[in-house]
Amino acid sequence: MKSLTDPTQALSTGLGKIRTEFHVPDGFPPDVMAAANAAAKRVPNQHADRTAMPFVTLDPASSTDLDQAFSIETSAGDLLLHYAIADVAWFAEDSDAVDLEAWNRGETLYLPDGKAGLYPPVIAEGAASLLPNGPRPSIIFTVRVAEDGAVKLDGAERAIIRSRAKLAYDSAQASDLPTGFAELARRMAANEERRGASRVDPPEQEVEKLADGTFQLSFRPLLQSEQDNAALSLAANMAIADAMLAHKTGLFRVMSGPDASKIQRLRNAAQALGLSWPASSSLRDYQRTLDPVDPRQAALMLEIRRAGNGASYQPYQEGVVPWHEAMAATYAHATAPLRRLADRYVVRCALAIANGQPVPQAVTDAFERLPRVMGRADARASQINHAAIDLAEAVMLKGHERETFKAVVTDFVDHGVRVQLADMPVVANVKASGLRQGDGLDLKLVSADPDRRSILFEPAV
């Protein structure tokens, strides 16, 4: 983890340029704000009272747009996950100003100095957010998790809940969490292994704004609490996906895996990095043994992530089983409607199915339009993230021209290699030949230009 010295405010200036370049919205139009303010005052009248249930939330400490709250109880040998999801549809009606603006945005965009929300804060961080400062409308999905980790959607209802606590990933204790939380995560992990799921969570390169207004650039592995919390979403998303598929409707998250040639390339990369990958072990099995704390194993995890084909959205098609290769399952996005447009419609679909009602035509129509809208939004979010990291790397290295840095080759690119610096969370492309993955080398920094968000290294002589 490295702090960024930025006396000239190059990072702040560069982030402003990124916002302009990628057309990141600055606030909301007056008509959207007026509609959102009115919507936030709507009194829920189609919701059961479930305020006696002991719900809690678990998120980053600074988060205020809370999509999910949960409670867990036992049922014989099963666990019942009561997963409350923010009832965004109560505040965004089809074709109103709030809804139309959300379709323009697609998803919340995150930058180190702030986010551009999918919905106005009065909804996303107020009336719809499952904060513990008052009752909130939600959709409670009850998911049955068997001893072997198999999941089934037992029911769904519109309900008013009151969260008992806003827990944070980096401070939550086992005693703060519902009984069964760790066991549910264990069951889901064991089920993933039995399915042969190939999901990997490599450390993320990110830029974070600190409390004192400065920034830091780091590689951040997921905390155990984050991984366990993700198991709740996985259980709900898989159960909802199965329910939609059984009713021949829905919107699914799909992804194909790397082909044979890419897998062989990954085996070569593992060998070059000095890692032992037994010939009898499949990619799915092998990658589950990798430790993101080890730099060489983390580098291979990043290579595995890049080798996979990107995930996309797909509406139900007769005779086609939507498949997510990394999950080794039929999978959907339903648990983050405050941050992703598609989730709001999947939630509405699953609520109708669970209650024996027809799926609204507006939802069915949306499933045909959403893949293109979400694809465009995902691409812009990815471009913004990469631009912010490129900027931070250039700011960090500015003033260190002509200095020498140790690095490790992680991959091959056109006309050279991709490297990771040994002492900084920086990756770069370098024109060089005669190297193998895993080789160490010394590099000289030629230039670092925050204005262009570029850095240039060459092999040190």
Notes on the structure:
This protein is an alpha+beta fold and 461 residues long. The chain has helices at 10-21, 30-39, 97-105, 121-127, 181-195, 224-246, 260-272, 283-287, 295-307, 341-354, 361-397, and strands at residues 2-3, 48-49, 57-59, 68-75, 78-86, 109-111, 114-116, 136-145, 151-161, 166-168, 204-209, 215-220, 251-254, 312-315, 404-413, 416-421, 427-430, 440-449, 454-459. The model has no long low-confidence stretch (mean pLDDT 91).
Q: What's this, in brief?
A:
By secondary structure, the protein is α+β, with helices and mostly antiparallel strands.
Number of helices: 11
Major β-sheet strand ordering: 2-9-8-5-4
Quaternary structure type: single chain
Helix content: 25-40%
Q: Per the principal axes of the C-alpha atoms, what is the gross shape?
A: globular
Structural class: alpha+beta
